[in-house]
Design a protein that fits this description.
This protein has 2 domains: about 35-100; about 110-180, Winged helix-like DNA-binding domain superfamily/Winged helix DNA-binding domain (Arc Repressor Mutant, subunit A, Orthogonal Bundle). The protein has a 3-stranded antiparallel sheet. Helix 2 (about 20-75) runs antiparallel to helix 3, helix 2 crosses helix 6 and helix 5 packs across helix 6 (about 145-160). By secondary structure, the protein is mainly alpha-helical. It has helices spanning about 10-15, 20-75, 80-100, 105-130, 135-140, 145-160; strands spanning about 130-135, 165, 170-175. The protein contains 6 helices and 3 strands. Helix content is about 65%, strand content about 5%.
């Protein structure tokens, strides 16, 4: 394999890259766990919200029903179900809706900001290293773990922002052409 050849799976790579392949698989598993945790937060939020809406709706219906029954018949007995089956569940539903509104999960928004911040950290590190980085180097220069750095670099390579290179020794490097200095033209210095 040539020193600057682009990533092409071969028997040689899989012999030398077992650790890298296992790291990629473990990264995928970890990210799936994060996604499952986010989904679980969303499910709990929607379940609480539906419960609050059901409590509010039933409270309104029973308040109206027992209120009409009390006003038509004049029996004071209807005041108790009006309060305990109508008004109290209605107030509880309003309280739960307000609590659900203020405890809304903001995982997606913080995740987007975190990804953007991480991408900027990776780009800064790539610029400092003249456009050639590894996941370990990114982990050293940013707040990311090696697995997170590798996943983000793979995503950036998949989207065409960087090029993954496998060296003769099996080392995987990511090249950012924008930051690589070219002979004589001074490109890559202004960003």
């Amino acid at each position: 394999m040539h020193a600057n050849s682009q990533y092409r799976p071969s028997g040689e790579f899989f012999k030398t890259g077992k650790l890298t392949l296992s790291a990629v698989l473990s990264t995928i598993i970890v990210m799936d766990q994060y996604d499952e945790a986010d989904e679980e937060l969303q499910r709990r939020y929607h379940k609480r919200r539906k419960s609050a809406e059901a409590s509010l709706t039933s409270g309104i219906i029973f308040t109206i029903a027992f209120g009409i029954a009390w006003s038509v018949t004049g029996f004071w007995f209807f005041i108790f179900p009006l309060l305990f089956v109508g008004v109290m569940p209605m107030v509880e539903g309003i309280r739960r809706l307000a609590a659900a509104r203020y405890s809304r999960p903001v995982v997606a928004e913080s995740k987007k900001k975190s990804v953007a911040s991480s991408e900027k950290q990776i780009l800064r590190a790539a610029k400092e290293e003249n456009g050639i980085v590894t996941p370990a180097l990114i982990a050293l220069k940013t707040e990311l773990s090696i697995q997170e750095a590798e996943k983000m670099l793979d995503d950036m390579a998949r989207n065409g922002y960087t090029v993954m290179q496998v060296r003769e020794n099996g080392r995987i490097e990511y090249e950012f052409p924008e930051f690589m200095s070219r002979l004589g033209d001074g490109a890559g210095e202004s960003v």
